[in-house]
Write a structure and sequence with these properties.
The two termini are about 30 Å apart. By secondary structure, this protein is of the alpha/beta class. The chain contains 11 helices and 8 strands. Helix content is about 45%, strand content about 15%. The structure holds flavin-adenine dinucleotide. Flavin-adenine dinucleotide binds next to strand 3, strand 4, helix 5 and strand 6. Flavin-adenine dinucleotide (FAD) binds next to strand 3, strand 4, helix 5 and strand 6.
């Protein structure tokens, strides 16, 4: 496929769609940066944007503030992440009710990481929802929401094997999830094998790849180790020696992510979720390369009817 094929898969004409993930800012400065990012990416008309949620409700207010601002000041469709770790059912239910009252119709339902940190044994709250599947059921009971859940092409680090992992995904879908968004990965073959396993297990919801443009390679490697995402040797090779050269790092990061996305498009993928880390530049550049352009620019370059 030509990389210049604009926002459509050539053989089917299917539209390529993107969504963007943000995290709630902790300071005024970070809020300013996030808002610049939202303003830059909004004209790309994502299917939705999502705002993450901290363990035990630690970001309940900042997440709510960010969602409210998106609802009030943009035409974007925001999705609220929600975790159930370290919270009882009443507390989680009241967040669902508050977010719904605010106008939120999309949720990304997650169990969350153990409070002691990734790698510690997960202990559910004694009066809480114990995993993502139970949280999905609670959301479906509350209203008619669009519910996304997590998926792990390289399996979740706590899962003993793929079968256990996919069984959890099946429970989440059986309880009402209509889409799964993956943990970030760099090995497209692993993603394809995973989707095949998922389909063989009778799960037919879209599995949307989570794409992480690499803003800081050493930091990403540490994070990937905790999430169970494999960083291939060829990637280390490409970023080697760029620790003190941010401009080249940025160009390499855009190329690596664009290559990954273009390859996935060739394999038939139409939807992409970008982990933006509240920064617009790489996500914007990759979208540009796959033909997703700001609305005004698209209108200006559209052929004029004779
Ligand atoms: P679940 O789907 O409930 O479980 C994950 C896996 O653990 C299962 O696949 C299963 O294999 C295994 N497992 C769970 N329970 C059992 C059991 N009883 N027996 C055997 N195996 C079991 N974290 C945040 O804190 N805030 C966020 O906003 C956030 N957003 C995310 C968005 C996406 C798209 C993704 C992929 C992850 C996100 N995370 C977030 C991280 C997530 O919270 C962690 O990966 C967490 O460790 C698992 O949550 P989950 O919902 O995937 O868990």
């Amino acid at each position: 496929m030509s990389p210049f094929q604009l926002a459509r898969r050539p053989e089917t004409g299917a539209r390529i769609r993107v969504s963007f993930e943000f995290f709630p800012p902790k300071t005024e400065d970070m809020a300013h940066k996030l808002w610049e990012t939202v303003e830059r990416l909004a004209p790309l008309r994502p299917s939705f944007v999502s705002v993450t949620y901290g363990a035990g409700g630690s970001t309940r207010e900042p997440t709510a503030r960010t969602l409210r601002r998106i609802l009030q000041e943009t035409a974007l469709d925001p999705a609220a992440h929600l975790t159930c770790v370290d919270a009882d059912r009443d507390a989680v239910d009241s967040v669902i009710a508050d977010f719904a009252a605010m106008g939120i119709r999309r949720f990304i339902a997650l169990r969350g990481d153990p409070t002691e940190g990734v790698g510690a044994a997960y202990r559910p709250h004694p009066r809480g929802y114990t995993n993502g599947a139970e949280l999905v059921r609670a959301l479906a009971r509350h209203g008619s929401f669009d519910i996304s859940v997590s998926a792990y092409p390289e399996k979740h680090p706590e899962s003993p094997d793929f079968a256990t992992d996919i069984e959890m995904l099946k429970r989440k879908v059986d309880n009402g999830a209509t889409r799964a968004i993956t943990q970030f990965f760099f090995d497209n073959d692993a993603f394809e094998r995973y989707v095949e396993r998922v389909r063989r297990s009778g799960i037919y919801v879209p599995i949307v790849p989570g794409i992480l443009p690499v803003h800081n390679f050493p930091q990403m490697v540490r994070f990937a180790g905790r999430c169970g995402s494999h960083v291939p040797a060829w990637m280390a090779e490409r970023f080697a020696g760029l620790e003190r050269d941010p401009a080249t790092h940025q160009l390499v990061a855009a190329a690596v992510a664009a290559e990954q996305v273009l390859d996935l498009i060739e394999r038939g993928v139409c939807d992409f979720h970008f982990y933006t880390m509240n920064r617009a530049e790489l996500a914007f550049a990759i979208c540009h390369m796959i033909g997703i352009r700001p609305e005004a620019e698209r209108a200006a370059s559209a052929p004029v009817a004779a």
